[in-house]
Amino acid sequence: RNGTAIRKKLHFSKTKRRLPQALIVGVRKCGTRALLEMLFLHPKIQKAAGEVHFFDRDENYNLGLEWYRQKMPYSFFDQVTIEKSPSYFVTPEVPERIRAMNASIRLLLILREPVTRAISDYTQLKSLAASTTPQTKINQQKSFEELAIKANGEVNSSYRPIAISIYHTYVLQWLEIFPRNQILIVNGDRLIEDPVWEIQKIESFLGLEPKITKDNFYFNQTKGFYCMKTDGSEHCLHESKGRKHPRVEPAVVTKLRT
Ligand code: A3P
Fold first, then answer.
1. Nearest C-alpha to atom 4 of ligand 1 is from which residue?
2. Which residues, judged by CB distance below 6 Å to any ligand atom, belong to the binding site of ligand 1?
């Protein structure tokens, strides 16, 4: 028992909370949680619990970097700390604030086919509607088609799930602040189909030894997605990840894609 206590103490003294060296900055509903959990299979990665929302919420940002550091997990000096807050992507102040913390930070931006992303966003808002304001409830009784296309037939780009899917408007703000080689675009559609392929690219981008292999994954027929294996235990993402999407009129999908 004494030996265990000493080892714990040694372990503790060699670790500390460190500011993140990499961030998943978005995009919401593109697989940000799956990406973080899959990267966490790597022994040299530590992740913050939950979404910290430091750079996008003034009430947090104003608390300063020490507050942010305290939200980070304990890590060894050679581990990479990662945090994910998907709303960083769409908040104009965020890129400059991140640069002020660490100009050489590595950024992961996961994207999906934008119409699928918009439908996923709509599906999530609809499922959350029961617990939100009456106005949201009314909006969420509407079909995706009604919300995405205006009465005059134009695309309703002020509908938030559509606006967020117009990626280039936000990407430009990031490219003004960070060099392109500091941003890795992760393919969220491929992360679903072939997680190992996508994750191995990220190991290399983060300068980590390749450790994550196909043995870390198995396809769960019931969930319809890959789930993870670590040390003999298996786990899938929460049931809110991998929701069934409503059928959307093909003409509307085509119009949005165009
Ligand atoms: P859907 O629920 O619409 O299918 P985020 O974590 O950014 O909110 O993204 C959620 C999306 O992650 C899900 O959207 C799902 O398609 C995707 N995803 C990717 N890999 C997944 C996995 N292995 N298990 C569950 N969902 C996964």
1. 242
2. 28-34, 86, 120, 123, 191-192, 225-226, 237, 241-243
Look up the ipTM and state it.
0.99
Radius of gyration of the chain (CA): 20
Q: How many CB atoms lie within 10 A of CB 101?
A: 14
**Residue ranges per structural domain of the chain:** 15-257
| DSSP string for residues in 104-133 | T-EEEEEE--HHHHHHHHHHHHHHHGGGS-
Give the whole-angstrom CA distance, residue 88 versus residue 101: 14
**Ligand 1 pocket mutation pick from 29, 111, 197 by most atoms within 8 angstroms of CB:** 29
Q: Is CATH 3.40.50.300 the right assignment for the domain spanning 15-257?
A: yes
Reported as a single tens digit per residue, the pLDDT across 175-212 is 999 999 999 999 999 999 999 999 999 999 999 999 99
Please provide the distance, in angstroms rounded to a whole number, between the alpha carbons at the two ends of the chain.
66
